[in-house]
């Protein structure tokens, strides 16, 4: 019997690593997809490579994009500082339309591979207020995907799967640990050093640390002294 294929959006962070492990455990033949989009924290690209190899991805593809050319985010514009205190509303670390762009390319690759499932690690519980991490967005995108593709039109329904959507960061860490995810390979920090050392102060670092603490598990993150 031929294994079912899935495209997994893999950033190199904690959430996407957990999603890859979950898809693999569910019997999918996993094709990991990452993006070199001009992000400030390039250490995540190396992390993604290690995670993909460690969790048995069949292939790990990195697509180069230039979102830095339009800017508009602290992650793609060095003139905008990464906030180190909690803020209200949509934070400056939101990258305009990032998930829409990423999912579009994942959708194209899924069609080429004959994969009917795309996995993404968005989360509506412990997240930073990004509009493209909500369940309404995922539902709308899946509907669009089946209207706009040959696969969908010909009856091979495509599914956008977001298994972390309603999980807390502690739940995610616990699930991943049970599946054997080596979180020491992952990088979550918005302003990580080239070697992956995390700042400890940004929103992503705080959420990650709180998740490990609440789960009662040791945080393997290497932090800047």
Automatic annotation (TrEMBL):
Reactions catalysed, as given in the entry: 7-carboxy-7-carbaguanine + NH4(+) + 2 ATP = 7-cyano-7-carbaguanine + 2 AMP + 2 diphosphate + 2 H(+)
Keywords carried by this UniProt record: ATP-binding, Ligase, Metal-binding, Nucleotide-binding, Queuosine biosynthesis, Zinc
Listed EC numbers: 6.3.4.20
Coiled-coil ranges from the UniProt annotation: none
GO biological process: tRNA queuosine(34) biosynthetic process
Origin superkingdom: Bacteria
A Pfam family per the record: QueC
Keyword Nucleotide-binding in annotation: yes
Manner of cofactor binding, per the entry note: Binds 1 zinc ion per subunit.
Cofactor(s) this protein cannot do without: Zn(2+)
Enzyme class: ligase
One Gene Ontology MF term: zinc ion binding
Pathway the protein takes part in: Purine metabolism; 7-cyano-7-deazaguanine biosynthesis
SUPFAM superfamilies recorded: Adenine nucleotide alpha hydrolases-like
Positions with a binding annotation for ATP: 10-20
Residues annotated for Zn(2+) binding in this entry: 189, 199, 202, 205
Primary role: Catalyzes the ATP-dependent conversion of 7-carboxy-7-deazaguanine (CDG) to 7-cyano-7-deazaguanine (preQ(0)).
Family as reported in the entry's similarity comment: Belongs to the QueC family.
Protein name from the UniProt record: 7-cyano-7-deazaguanine synthase
């Amino acid at each position: 019997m031929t294994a079912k294929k899935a495209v997994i959006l893999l950033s190199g962070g904690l959430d996407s690593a957990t999603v890859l492990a979950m898809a693999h455990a569910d019997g999918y033949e996993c094709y990991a997809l990452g993006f070199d989009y001009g992000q400030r924290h390039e250490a995540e690209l190396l992390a993604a490579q290690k995670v993909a190899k460690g969790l048995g991805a069949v292939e790990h593809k990195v697509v180069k994009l230039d979102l830095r050319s339009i800017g508009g985010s602290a992650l793609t514009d060095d003139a905008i500082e990464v906030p180190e205190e909690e803020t209200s509303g949509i934070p400056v670390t939101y990258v305009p339309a990032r998930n829409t762009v990423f999912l579009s390319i994942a959708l194209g690759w899924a069609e080429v591979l004959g994969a009917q499932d795309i996995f993404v690690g968005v989360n509506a519980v412990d997240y930073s207020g990004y509009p493209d991490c909500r369940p309404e967005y995922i539902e709308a995108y899946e509907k669009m995907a089946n209207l706009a593709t040959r696969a969908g039109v010909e009856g091979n329904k495509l599914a956008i799967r977001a298994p972390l959507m309603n999980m807390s960061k502690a739940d995610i860490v616990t699930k991943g640990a049970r599946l054997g995810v080596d979180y020491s390979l992952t990088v979550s920090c918005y302003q990580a050093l080239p070697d992956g050392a995390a700042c400890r102060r940004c929103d992503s670092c705080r959420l990650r640390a709180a998740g490990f603490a609440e789960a009662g598990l040791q945080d393997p993150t290497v932090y800047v002294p």
